[in-house]
Amino acid sequence: METNEIKSGCLCGSGEYIVIACSGACDLGQVTDLVARELRDNKVRKMNCLAAVGAGINPTIESFKSANLLLLDGCPVDCGKKILEQAGIENFHYIRITDLGYIKGQTQVTEGIIKEVYEKVEAIY
Questions:
Q1: Given this model, what pLDDT does residue 15 score?
Q2: What is the rounded distance in angstroms from the CA atom of residue 81 to the CA atom of residue 79?
Q3: CB 85, CB 61: distance < 8 Å
Q4: Residue 114 and residue 37 in contact, taking contact as beta carbons nearer than 8 Å
Q5: What does pTM read for this prediction?
Q6: How far is CA 60 from the centre of its chain?
Q7: Residue 68 β-bridge partners
């Protein structure tokens, strides 16, 4: 289930908030990775590993099913989304960076771009 609901408030007592990113080889994969790390560093969400889902690590898959999960995908190939869906994870928040106006293969990975994307995703609950 895709949601892009944005709420205000704190994360106190609201369950586990996790961010995962498709850290693909393109520029937007690098952006998703860096934004996810910044969300982690700012204690907005805990960062976890999408590769663990792809590898079929069952404890990770099961914990993701009950977490407040945010997936950052870089482009319309939707690798991260496909990995989650193949693992039976359906309830997650989803942001595709190209939907925010960035172009795969044409987006410089700069502090300014990271900040812009971060500001668009940090309040997604």
A1: 58
A2: 6
A3: no
A4: no
A5: 0.87
A6: 15
A7: 17
